[in-house]
Each structure stands twice: as structure tokens, then as C-alpha cells.
Amino acid sequence: MAKKSVRFVCTACGQPSSTWAGRCPNCGEWNTLEEQLTPTALAAAADKGSVLKPQPVATVAKQAEARMPSGIQEVDDVLGGGLVPGSVTLLAGQPGIGKSTLLMQTAAALAGKTKVLYVSGEESAHQVAARAARLGASKADLQLVTSNSADDIAATIAGGSYQVVIVDSIQTVAASAVASSAGSVAQITNSTQLLTLAAKNSGTAVILVGHVTKEGSIAGPKVLEHVVDTVLQLEGDRYGGFKVLRAIKNRFGSTNEAGIFEMVNEGLRPVSNPSAALLEERQITDGSVVLATLEGTRPLLVEVQALVNKTSYGYPKRAASGLDLNRLNLLVAMLERRTKLKLAEYDIYVNIVGGLKITEPAADLAVCLAIGSAAKGLQLKTNAVVFGEVGLSGEVRHVPHIDKRVTEASKLGFDGAIGPRSGKPDKFLHPVRDVRDALNQFLEK
Question: Which residues are CB-contacts of 76 (< 8 A; sequence separation ≥ 6)?
Fold first, then answer.
């Protein structure tokens, strides 16, 4: 009988074992035994290897194929110019956010210029066809198949008959060589590597749909994000508001771009002027401030609303929609300490209008002015947008791309901007040194 070429080694104490066990017999730790090749097997594998044949980078660069435009400008901007042949893209998002809708629109736009295959592992062919008819994609030269076999899908990709293959979703396909069920860590890892290998060898652009957990992170092992070339995330409120497409990882372009869409009956429609749409129903009142923020490299004006009300309980409530609650608590504590605002006995609610989530620190000054405005019943003296990062000492700090924010505000008819000091003089920008200066200078009844 031939010797086994693998052994199991405890990652905690290093004790080797010939068989796997849930608990290490030496140190008693659970789930620490990992499979490793024996030194003999490693040496044999090294002897079987062949010498690699490299080629000059310049030669490979000349052979590079041109990108394939998706037909949707917002998607192309996020991808960096279109799909790269042989690339693997992962699209993730909450259930019902519009992943399948966006991919069906993209597939229909691509089908007129190249051969596209849509592989559905979640829905039947009739369900996918019904969506295509609703989105006006049924007349496109788009091929459709339903399968849950990663082996069959990989063989189809390797055949090279299609330039683009969409797999919806990676959590529903399974490789026959792995005994576990679809959606498990082993199946997701092996199925993704199988499809990726087929895509690289055939030059086919593959788009995978990925599920997310209840916390919002991509479901499955982290290796899933490492293996693919591009990771896209579709965010927003599934019941309304704008949907934002971001690139979390992109080997072929920038991760600073964002595509903004609006869900209508005909599918996801790109929003050409989101700032005007977000401010269309705005009412000028206390607690309302317009923030000049950035979605990727695109300037965006959004309304920040604050409500300050005397609490009915012993512990005041703080709530935030579209803003990190910890950041709100930090800003409230700073206002209490660095200004004359007394907020310890008041409930404070902050809302970002439009269902957007603001993560950049440039929103700090707008949130502070909105809270101060609501607490004192005052409004901004000037029809201005607000931006700036606020430190714990109350100072207003510099933020990137001030010129883009100011230009966007000017286009939409605002009279000025309130923010940190800029390197060059600007009559449109009203610089402030700290939060107290901003509250005293720009709030009035």
C-alpha cells in the first residue's frame, strides 16, 4: 500500500497527525488541524514541474484586447471604460436592490455587438424571460440557459463561443468534485476558481452575481473577492431613492468612480443630474442644510435634515439615517463641549434625504450646522452649501476637491459655499475657522 501524501498539522501547537480530528489530541484546541502535503509529496511535486517560459511585457501589452463597452455609460465609468476580455467581475447587493435588473439591461445592450450568454441558477427560464420582456430586452440577440452545474458552465465558457457570460448567482452553482452543498465555503471557492480559470483561458468576460449577509458584506469566503478582478457593490434603499454602483476592487481602473441610478418601471435609469433631483422638493426651514459631497469623483448636493426635541426620557435618543451613528454621537459631544449649545436633554435625529449613505468626513460641518439650526430654530443667512471635516477641538479641516463642490453649487443657483479655508481666494466660498464661528456667522432667525 502506498504511503499517504497528506498529513494534518495543528496550527496551534504544530503537532502532526495522520487523520483529521475536530480537537487536537496534543493541546486540546478545536478545529485547528489543517491538511498539508508531506515533505515527500512536496519533493515529488517539485520534480514533476516544468520550467516556465516567460515573455517580454511589451509583447504581451501589444496583444492586449480592447475593452467592451457595456452600453450603459454609468457602468462603463465604474468599470474604468468597459469590460476587459478574460476578466471576472463580481456584482453584489441586497436582495431586491436591482442586481439582476441591471445585468439584464447590460446583457441586452451588449447583445447587439457581441455574443452574450445569461446563465440563471436561481430562476427558471420563463421567469428570466418575463423580466427581459418587462425591460424591453426580449428582442435582443441574447442567449439564455438555466444550470446549477459549475462544471457545465465552465465547459461552456472554455468553448469560447461567447464573449460575455453572466452567472446569476455564484451561490447557487456547485462543482461535482466537491461533496458539500451549493453555497458552502468549499463550493463557492472551487466553483469561482473553476469559472475564473475557464474565463482566463478563453478570454471570456464573466460577470458573477453575489449574495450579501444581513450585515451587508459579501457572503462567502474572503477568497471570493481576492480571486475575481473587479468587485462591484450596488447600494441604496430597495424601496425607493437612488441606487449607487461602486467599485470596491478594480484591477483595471479606479475605485473612486460611482454610478447613480433610479429604479423605474423600465428598469434602472441613469440619473444625469442627481443634485437637482435630490433638492427638487426641499423646503427651506430650520434644521435643513445642503451638503456638497462626492460620490466617487462626482460632486453631489444632498439635503441634511436635523430634528432636535426635548426628551421625554432620562436618556436622550440619538438616531441617524444615511449617516454613521457613532459619528453623530461624536459630533454632538463636540458641540456640547466647544459651543454654547446644550444638547444633553434633547433627542437628536439626523436624516440624509434621498436614501443615500454619506461616509466621507466632509459631511461633519453640514451636520453640525443642521443640529445648531434645529436646536435654536434658526436658518442659514445665505443660500449656500456646506462642507468640511470637523475635529474634536471644533476646528474645520480641509477636504479634497473643493473646486468641484463649489462649481456644482454655482451651477444649481446657490449664492455661496461655507467650508474650510482654500489655498486660493474665492468670492463664492465663505471660509470658517471653527464650528462656533460658523454657527455665529451664518445662522439667523
Answer: 69, 70, 82
